[in-house]
User: Which sequence fits this backbone?
């Protein structure tokens, strides 16, 4: 029997889905997991409502496999995902040996289980239903953001959650998909772009100052100045303070997920010699009005 991996093997699961798509010459954007199962000789049926809390089942009797999927959530996208999840257990190396020792596996599909086998089947399902190449092409046709996820969901006929997670896995932009219940974050998927994100977030721009005049806005993230990468506030301060007053610098920044460039003229303010803090006399505080006696 296969032993359970400690962590989900995402690339193994996604690779296994790509192999199925290649073998069956399926490109998407719409992939029919029921058709794939049927072509593999697996019987697919809706699951009776009496089995609660289960998104689907993979069953084995002799050499025959069967898939049952939940219909209590009336979303075609989610139902397709449930079928694809079971196909994942059927296709990923070691899953059927590990999960079908007593003939049936009960699933919790939809990125809500912490079980590595369940997560692998979810990664398989997302990769199967949203083939990478077609998904990327469709993704590039739209501006980054939630509207793009909606368009991708429509094109692939998938669930919003699965589409958003797949999007976070394939986009180069900084994206996080977060599910929270009340004040608790259940899970968070971050794009590689976000994990590697460096730069300085501009929280506020003072009107009339060089940054404002150069076109920098609040919430921009400065990533480089004149081609030198800015990894944090210290880098930005060092680069700007070593630039002569009046010289223009080219600033690359991320704005609403897109890279932009602006030119900013370095003002005197940034390069003024700094007085060491300990030499600065304490500033007089505002005068407090004398307390008035109660009338
Ligand atoms: Zn499962």
Assistant:
């Amino acid at each position: 029997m296969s032993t359970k991996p400690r962590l989900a093997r995402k690339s193994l699961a996604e690779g296994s889905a790509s192999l199925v798509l290649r073998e069956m010459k399926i490109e998407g954007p719409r992939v029919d997991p029921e058709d794939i199962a049927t072509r593999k000789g697996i019987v697919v049926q809706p699951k009776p409502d009496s089995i609660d809390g289960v998104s689907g089942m993979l069953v084995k009797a002799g050499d025959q496999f069967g898939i049952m999927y939940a219909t209590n959530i009336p979303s075609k996208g989610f139902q397709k995902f449930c079928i694809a999840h079971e196909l994942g257990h059927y296709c990923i190396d070691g899953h059927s040996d590990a999960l079908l020792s007593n003939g049936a596996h009960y699933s919790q599909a939809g990125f809500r289980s912490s079980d590595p086998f369940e997560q692998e089947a979810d990664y398989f399902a997302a990769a199967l239903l949203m083939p990478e190449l077609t998904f990327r092409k469709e993704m590039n046709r739209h501006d980054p953001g939630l509207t793009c996820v909606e368009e991708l969901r429509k094109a692939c006929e998938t669930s919003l959650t699965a589409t958003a997670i797949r999007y976070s896995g394939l986009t180069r932009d900084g994206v996080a998909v977060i599910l929270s219940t009340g004040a608790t974050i259940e899970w968070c998927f971050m794009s590689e772009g976000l994990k590697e994100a460096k730069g300085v977030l501009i929280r506020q721009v003072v009107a009339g100052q060089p940054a404002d005049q150069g076109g920098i806005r609040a919430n921009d993230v400065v990533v480089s100045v004149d081609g030198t990468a800015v990894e944090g506030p210290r880098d930005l301060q060092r680069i700007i303070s070593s630039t002569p007053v009046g010289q223009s610098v080219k600033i690359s920044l991320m704005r609403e997920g897109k890279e932009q460039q602006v030119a900013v003229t370095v003002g005197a303010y940034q390069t003024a010699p700094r007085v060491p803090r300990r030499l600065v006399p304490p500033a007089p505080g505002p005068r407090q009005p004398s307390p008035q006696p109660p009338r």
In short: Residues 85, 89, 105, 107, 118, 121 surround zinc ion (CB under 6 Å). The CA atoms of residues 205 and 218 lie 6 Å apart. The longest strand covers residues 248-255. Residues 10-192 form one domain.
